[in-house]
Amino acid sequence: xxxxxxxxxxxxxxxxxxxxxxxxxxxxxxxxxxxxxxxxxxxxxxxxxxxxxxxxxxxxxxxxxxxxxxxxxxxxxxxxxxxxxxxxxxxxxxxxxxxxxxxxxxxxxxxxxxxxxxxxxxxxxxxxxxxxxxxxxxxxxxxxxxxxxx
Length: 150
Known about the structure:
Radius of gyration: 17 Å
Oligomer: single chain
Structural class: mainly alpha
Shape: elongated
Distance between the termini: 21 Å
Number of strands: 0
């Protein structure tokens, strides 16, 4: 099971070396790790009602729907097979990379800005991170479906 090496996983998916048990583990870790990571980046007032939280939630839904649609289109441009398998398996190491390189440092910076200077940029951070996640996921789904690892 890959935690960081997206390229290695892509090669294994192309060569059909990912077992059903490994697929299950990727799904399990994706649900346990990637989904809560998106909650981690949400601003702390996530349960408040108003125009800004509503717009942020709407933007997130649109990014998720658009991102999944783009991944589906990328898969269709190749062999159009195993879409769900690819999204789940590739989503885990992409999520781990994004969490460790962007989410964690970014959240620390945002908390520091809020605490020291009163700036609240959290509402912008969530949609940007989601867009980056789906951009990378789309790239790797396309690479596997076309069998062209760059």
